[in-house]
Input
Amino acid sequence: MKLLIVRLRLIGDVVFTTPVIRALRRRYPEAHLTYLVESAAAPVVSGNPHLNDVVTVPHTRGWRRLVDDLRLARRLRRARFDVAIDLHGGPRSAWLTWATRAPVRVGYDVAGRSWMYSSAVHRPRILRPRHSVINQWDLLTALDASWPPPDAEHDGVEMPATPAAAAAIGARLASWGVPDAARIVVLHVSAGNPFRRWPESAFAEFATSIVAGEPHRWVLVTSGPSDHAAAARVVHAAHAAAGDASPRIVDAEGLSLAELRALFDRTALFVGGDSGPLHVASTSSAPIVGLYGPTLPERSAPWRPAHIPTASVDAGALPCRPCDQRRCIPGDFRCLSGIAAARVASEAERLLEMTR
Output
């Protein structure tokens, strides 16, 4: 059997599909499994041991995208897949799934797109406190109604670290002066949109407090390519407040996604918002403090065994939360600005103590 898995767009969403990949390999050990993904998230699955092939979708726009998609559609059709599963549900992924002409095409019953599938699985239109892994797992029931439910203890998310990335991180740490015995705290300060960004002042306050009086702790401040200026501001503010500890707060710019994953194998704690790097961190055994604003930890918290220390911090119940992240109704992003740095530091200390 030849089976295609389709998941476009965001890094974290692709991470959440990895339990499905493992489940499909377990159920169909002789199948040829191919994954269709966009280039930004391709490192998540490029080394997945359960896949036979990874096909990368070109990141283009306008007429160029139309040409590229038609070319890709012909390639997928020639592959003669028996089953195509659209774990995304967007218009582009639905069309590419339909274009395979696979006899079995599975996706969600999204209005205007259900006709592209041979089997459409119901997905409520509301933001509900149900994990994304479980939502995607629902599509497996279209292949077999008796499919067992997902279990984070045995089907956690995964992204193997590559030897090349591990070597690159070793060189980076040495260049930053981070000793081998350091307890590294990775502080990721960016997110996909402003609705998921904790205030820079809070990041700086946290970085200052977590290194104070702890000479073995180092904070590596990371960010996405478009947010490096924000990371630099956080580091600058933290340096101004940290005194003699300021050399142990490092601007760790320029890491690739593969290098970031390798870094987490040497990390004592990750702190950051609901973003791709948090979910990449969840594929390691690094403890995590996740910050949730408009999103719900019940939907987006790390999906991994319970024995790995993990904490979720949010602003609690708000009438506007969760939201669709198109417009902040109060206008002040209170779901994130209401999370105090001291509270995050308390959770961080608790997890660091657990793994001392």
In short: The first strand starts at residue 2 and ends at 6. The mean pLDDT is 93. Residues 53 and 318 are 44 Å apart (CA to CA).
